[in-house]
Amino acid sequence: MAKIIIPTPLRKFTGNQATIETNGSNVLESLQSLAETHPEIKKHIFDDAGQVRKFVRLYLGDEDIKALQNEQTAVQENSVISIIPAIAGGSK
Predict the structure, then answer these.
(1) In CATH, which of 3.40.50.1100, 3.10.20.30, 1.10.3720.10, 3.90.1300.10 is domain 2-84?
(2) Per-block average pLDDT, block size 10, for the chain (92 residues)?
(3) What is the spatial distance between Cα 56 and Cα 63, in angstroms, rounded to a whole number?
């Protein structure tokens, strides 16, 4: 079971849990497991086609999954996946 670290803005969709243990052999399956367990988070991670939203960054340990095999990156029992949502804003 991989562990997913939930960023603060999305914790309201996971019962305020900071980390969630998930099932899956890769990053995508782990995220799908998270969405099955906590359906309210799904729309914040996946688009209508079921793809991970473009603005959501995912890391396996310290590595951006884009430098690995993207969502197909294999996970192990002790893997840690971090969800990093885009932050917009700033001053004029």
Answers:
(1) 3.10.20.30
(2) 94 96 96 96 94 93 95 95 77 58
(3) 14
Is pTM beyond 0.70? Reply is yes
Question: In whole angstroms, what is the distance from residue 35 CA to residue 45 CA?
Answer: 8
- For the chain, the structural domain boundaries read 2-84
